[in-house]
Automatic annotation (TrEMBL), chain A:
Residues 3-207 form the ABC transporter domain. One of its GO terms (molecular function) is ATP binding. It comes from Methanoculleus nereidis. PROSITE patterns: ABC_TRANSPORTER_2. Keywords: ATP-binding, Nucleotide-binding, Transport. This is Energy-coupling factor ABC transporter ATP-binding protein.
From TrEMBL, chain B:
The chain crosses the membrane at residues 47-65, 72-88. It is found in: Membrane. The lineage of its organism: Archaea, Methanobacteriati, Methanobacteriota, Stenosarchaea group, Methanomicrobia. InterPro entries: ABC/ECF_trnsptr_transmembrane. This is Energy-coupling factor transporter transmembrane protein EcfT. It is a multi-pass membrane protein. Its main location: membrane. It comes from the Archaea. Keywords: Membrane, Transmembrane, Transmembrane helix. Signal peptide: none annotated. The keyword Ligase does not apply. It comes from Methanoculleus nereidis.
């Protein structure tokens, strides 16, 4: 199972996006500053935009899902329970996972953006598609909710998960790192080898690297463990 | 037409002419063909054709019930073409400028602001529909009769909520009533001629009184 980007070029006004590479099974993090082209690439991967040249080729991927940057753009039903059903899921399980039990009859627009984010993320993860593209899944979440979102993503056992995020504080365990800046996608490689060359690495990872530690992954706990190892 | 005052005047009188009689509608259509950039001002087929289809269905039902279905179809289609022309040609702030020019800083400003918000709302509704279309595609929901009802309800609730938010925002910013702007307009020689020509369909629409009586009946 893999997704190939073959000489992908997409232009809109003065902005041009370019990217090549292969997303294999596992969790991929595409990081980079706001306005770098992450959301555009997410839409291209989901097939909602067409490239001007090149192609996105899916191999062995039978189902794909994109979680949009703004969770309210997913809403198609007037109740939270109806919204979950519109994803083809049972409301009870999803509401439990999203920590929204008892809110099934609420208007989804009455949920806070963080709650709505938890709901859509739970729906997306529980649908368990072969290819799951998450556009800024941690935005609008507090630290605890970000941690829970990371846990949901890590819990996905199989398939390809591509996370587009500028988050630099709470991150999940990932298998590969990519960077997107000024419309250019760059593969940094597999974790942990990719960590030293990661330009948008979070401050705690930079600190660990400066101290001579070699974290095994990109989470804060990985940096802390690595520092503990070298300091005894 | 560059001058929004003349553009709105022409659209108003032509719409009245088209609504009043089939002859007026045909004359307004000739005016539309002569003066506007024609198909360039029409929205994309995905928006325009369903509207035409809705008019056609209503006209067919009217004809089936013994009414003037064909006349209704012609008149409503011409009004739709005129609306598309005005919508495509109206730039941000023009409605407010015309309303203030016509009715002053108090009542004119209020009406102009409502009109501006209405026009902006149309663009926002188009975006909302596009978002819902994408959401449905992502969820694997096929567009159909069963999906239209919750979508329409959602859209209406969203727009009511957005209006409420805008109203609150106006209050927070200290808006009470009226405002001052100095509208400036650029009139081209062709604008005046086209506006005068727009009176011809109005005159024609008043001649065949039979249509007016059908309408009233």
């Amino acid at each position: 199972m893999r997704v190939d980007l073959e000489g992908l070029v997409f232009a809109r006004g003065p902005f041009t996006l370019r990217g090549s590479g292969t997303f294999g099974e596992g969790v991929h993090l595409v990081s980079g500053p706001v306005g770098g082209g992450k959301s555009t690439l997410a839409l291209l991967l989901a097939g909602l935009l067409r490239p001007e040249s090149g192609a996105v080729r899916r191999h062995g991927v039978s189902s794909a899902l994109l979680l949009l940057q703004f969770p309210e753009h997913h809403i198609t039903c007037p109740t939270v329970a109806g919204e979950v059903r519109s994803w083809g899921l049972a409301p009870e399980d999803v509401l439990l996972r999203a920590d929204l039990l008892g809110r099934g009859d609420d208007d989804p627009f009455h949920l806070s953006r963080g709650e709505l984010r938890r709901l859509t993320l739970a729906c997306a993860v529980m649908q368990n598609p072969d290819l799951l593209v998450l556009d800024e899944p941690f935005s609008s979440l507090d630290c605890v909710a970000k941690g829970e979102a990371c846990w949901m993503i890590e819990e996905r056992g199989a398939g390809i998960t591509i996370i587009f995020s500028h988050e630099r504080a709470v991150l999940p365990r990932v298998d590969a790192i990519w960077e997107m800046e000024d419309g250019v996608l760059t593969a940094r490689g597999s974790v942990p080898d990719a960590i030293p060359s990661w330009r948008h690495a979070p401050p705690y990872l930079r600190y660990a690297l400066r101290e001579g530690a070699r974290p095994e992954n990109i989470r804060l706990s990985d940096a802390r463990e690595a520092l503990c190892r070298i300091r005894g | 037409m560059q001058d929004p005052r003349l553009r709105l005047f022409a659209a108003a009188v032509l719409s009245l002419a088209a609504f009043a009689s089939t002859a007026g509608a045909v004359a307004a259509l000739v005016w539309w063909l002569l003066v506007t950039p024609r198909t360039k001002v029409l929205p994309r087929p995905g928006v325009f054709l369903p509207l035409i289809a809705m008019i056609a269905v209503t006209a067919a039902l009217s004809a089936w019930g013994g009414g003037a279905g064909l006349s209704y179809f012609i008149r409503m289609t011409v009004i739709l073409l005129l609306a598309a022309w005005v919508y495509a040609g109206t730039e941000e702030g023009e409605m407010l400028a015309v309303a203030v020019w016509a009715l002053g800083d108090r009542v004119g400003f209020e009406i102009g602001l409502i009109a501006e918000m209405g026009l902006t709302g149309l663009a926002v509704i188009r975006q909302d529909i596009e978002h819902m279309r994408v959401a449905m595609a992502l969820k694997g929901i096929r567009p159909g009769v069963r999906s239209i009802v919750p979508l329409a309800a959602n859209l209406i609730v969203t727009e009511i909520r957005r209006s409420d938010e805008i109203a609150r925002l106006l209050v927070v910013r200290g808006y009470t009533i009226g405002g001052r702007i100095c509208p400036l307009f650029r009139t081209e020689p062709g604008d005046v001629l086209a506006s005068i020509m727009a009176l011809i369909p109005v005159l024609l629409s008043t001649l065949p009184l039979r249509d007016v009586f059908i309408l009233l009946g």
